[in-house]
Structures are given as structure tokens and as C-alpha cells.
């Protein structure tokens, strides 16, 4: 049997748009094709959370024709693509390398399975339902653990399931508090506290929790549930990439054997290391000695 020919970018886009329909993205989002010629042939696809310069270089060196990222490169208006800026350098690198860029952001968040299904699986949930419904689509998930556990044990299990990150996860709540019902929302999620409370979740797993909204949420809880876990933006969303690769492969059907799909191992979390503060570095009122 003759080996199948690699698909065109247009054919891959049809699969992607079917898996992550652009019209399910939130109105402020910028998803879909950013660079590339629909007629170009695709024989290698690279997947990553962020279209950083390092990711683009990794994809280029690997010989990729298409880079799929979760986060947009051009979310807000820009007035120059000069290489003196990071975005300009990224656009230039994509064009010079003839590397197409496709973004699946909030449309991948609400997809089933999507970003939050991967996070729910990491959190140990066997079944889950939408946490928030906006514009007719569900955002985030909430479900039950097969067996209740303490907040400490749950946080440890989650940390083990997530990709390695230098700053780990932050937890707020009673270490011995019981966790049975879990809400998850990959990426920034401190605008959904009201829905988390209404869901009856014992713990909320998300990222980018700001000081004031998180503090107010814990005050509202009066020390009880929902407890909070900030597991990091990159970590909570990177789990989706392998699921996406598998779904793209299935969508390509008999053309899949002619396309190599690769999930980037580069960590695009901006933080590199953690330094504890307080008693370990200060003694009394006189400062360091």
C-alpha cells in the first residue's frame, strides 16, 4: 500500500477548527491561523502552551511546518513587528522559517475534551460537569473524588500529576480539611469565585490568583471551604497538549501516518526558582545577621 501524502495546512486547519471551533472562543480572544499559507504542506506539527522565541526556535530546528499554541501571540494591537521587540522577533522568525502558527485558546478551554478535562483528570476526577456557563458554553469543571482525602493529601497528589515547576503550587486552607468535591479552571481563574462557592466545591484548583480576590474569597469562606490551590498558569494548561495531539492525529485519519506530532518539553513558566522568606533569613528586629 502506498504511503499517504502529507496534508496541506488547509486540511489540518479544517481538523483543528472542528475540534476547537473558533466561534466558541470568548469575544476578546484572538484564535485561529496567525501565520502561514493554507496551501503549504504539513509533515511535522509542534505543540506548546506559549509562542515564545525559544519555542519557535525549537519548532524551527525540528523542521516543523506548523506550531500550535494555546496562548495567542497577537492578543492586543501592535504597531510594529521590528525585531527590537519580542513579538516582532517572533513574527519575523515565523515568517522567515515558513512556520505556520495556529492558536486554540478559550475555544480549547471550553472544548470537551479540552484544557479543563486534562486538569480534572490530573486532579483525580472521574466525571465532571461545567463550572461556569457563558454564552452557551461551559468553562471550568467540577466533580467528585472517588474517595475523600485531606487537603494536604490532595495537594500532594495534584503536585505529582502536574509537570515540574520551580515554584510548585500554593495552597490556602486547613491542611487536615476534607476534600471531596473539586472545581478546576486552567489558567487565570479568580473571576469565578462566586460560581465555585455555588458549586459546593471543597477546593478550587486554578492559577494566577491575585492577592485581593483570593484574600476576599478566603474571608468569605470564614476559614472553611472552598479551599484554594494556585497551581500555576503554565502547569495547569500544559497537560492539554498531549490530548490535543492525540485528537489531531485521530482527526487526520488516514493521513495521520504522514504527519509527525511533537509536544514541546520546554517550560514556559516565567519563574525560575523560589527563595523562602521570613525566619530562615531574619532574626528578631535587627534584620539579617
Tell me the series of helices and strands, N- to C-terminal.
Answer: HEEHEHEHHEEHEEHEHEHHE
CATH architectural arrangement of the largest domain = 3-Layer(aba) Sandwich
Instruction: Report the radius of gyration as a whole number of Å.
Output: 21 Å
- Spans with pLDDT under 50 lasting ≥5 residues? 282-289
Work out the helix count: 10
The best one-word shape is globular
* Through-space gap between termini: 76 Å
Percent helix:
25-40%
Output the strand order for the largest sheet. Answer: 5-6-8-9-10-7
> What's the domain count?
2
CATH fold field value of the largest domain: Udp-n-acetylmuramoylalanyl-d-glutamate--2,6- Diaminopimelate Ligase, Chain: A, domain 1
CATH superfamily of the largest domain: NIF3 (NGG1p interacting factor 3)-like
Mean pLDDT metric: 94
**Strand tally:** 11
Largest sheet: 6 strands, mixed
Label the structural class. alpha/beta
Overall CATH class of the largest domain? Alpha Beta
Strand content: 15-25%
Report on the architecture of this protein:
A 6-stranded mixed β-sheet has the order 5-6-8-9-10-7. Strands 1-4-3-2-11 form a 5-stranded mixed β-sheet, with helices on both faces. Residues 282-289 have low confidence and may be disordered. The chain is an alpha/beta fold. The protein has 2 domains: 9-108 and 238-263, Udp-n-acetylmuramoylalanyl-d-glutamate--2,6- Diaminopimelate Ligase, Chain: A, domain 1 (3-Layer(aba) Sandwich), CATH 3.40.1390; 111-231, NIF3 (NGG1p interacting factor 3)-like (Udp-n-acetylmuramoylalanyl-d-glutamate--2,6- Diaminopimelate Ligase, Chain: A, domain 1), CATH 3.40.1390.30. The protein has 10 helices and 11 strands. 31% of the residues lie in helices and 22% in strands. InterPro entries: DUF34/NIF3, DUF34/NIF3_sf. Pfam families: DUF34_NIF3. Homohexamer. Keywords: Metal-binding. Belongs to the GTP cyclohydrolase I type 2/NIF3 family.
